[in-house]
Amino acid sequence: MKHPRQSKILLHGRGIGDLNEEDVEKRAQEIAVIRGLSADRVSEEDRAQAWSELQGEMLPDTTDTDGESIGAMSRDPSEPIAISGRQIVNQEGEDDTEAVERLATEGVEEAQHDQMLASREREQRQDRE
Length: 129
Fold this sequence. Notes:
129 residues; two-stranded antiparallel sheet
């Protein structure tokens, strides 16, 4: 394996020190686990890949052109692929008057429900006495 040279590792944009054997070994263990092996079964290939990754040697080339996207902007694999070129009808939210009326109605219904429960509890207490 190559000996680490003086290079910086960044974590959330902040330098955390020089690249060392411990960092390479930790990443190699992660690579082994990703490949479905135990973290104890690290191969030289895993270590070489870890070294390359941590040195930034495996980054894709930069380009002057914009790439074509075939999917959604989300990185969540459970989300379906977006269909581009289709516009949906704009949906307006309820206006303030309707919202106030709806909230008032819900409040009245909840108060009636609470009164009904309280009445039922009083009747049950009276029946027990």
